[in-house]
Design a protein that fits this description.
This protein has about 120 residues and is α+β, with helices and mostly antiparallel strands. About 30% of the residues lie in helices and about 25% in strands.
Length: about 120
């Protein structure tokens, strides 16, 4: 039996922060990340710092959003300690290695306009 293993790697990555006028807070922020794998598939995920979830909960309690902070949800959410490009790439590399991309990220189909910037901040 001749079995071939397919090794996937990141071939491109685009950070929402590249389009922001203001710098982001690597300890308390979130951003969308779009990336392509070596098999040509395109994906998106939103990275949140742990502190940002706390900050969003506090904000929602004061604004009344999400039943005044009773819950918080986001699609394709990945929690991270620090929101740096290096950390995000390390997380994605680890998820690729462990097969987690389809479980935790949203695949972007050809012709899908999902890769527009959505600013949660």
């Amino acid at each position: 039996m001749n079995v071939k293993a397919i090794i996937l790697i990141l071939t491109s990555i685009r950070f929402e922060s590249d389009y922001w006028d203001d710098p982001w807070n690597e300890d308390d922020d979130n951003m969308n990340v779009w990336f392509t794998l070596s098999d040509g598939t395109k994906w998106v995920a939103t990275f949140f710092t742990y502190q940002n979830i706390i900050s969003l909960s506090r904000k929602n309690k004061s604004t009344g959003e999400c039943l005044s902070g009773l819950y918080f949800c986001a699609t394709d959410m990945i929690l991270i300690e620090k929101l740096t490009k290096d950390s995000i790439q390390k997380v994605l590399d680890d998820m690729i290695l462990k097969g987690g991309i389809p479980l935790h990220c949203n695949r972007i189909e050809d012709g899908d306009d999902t890769d527009t910037e959505i600013q949660i901040r």
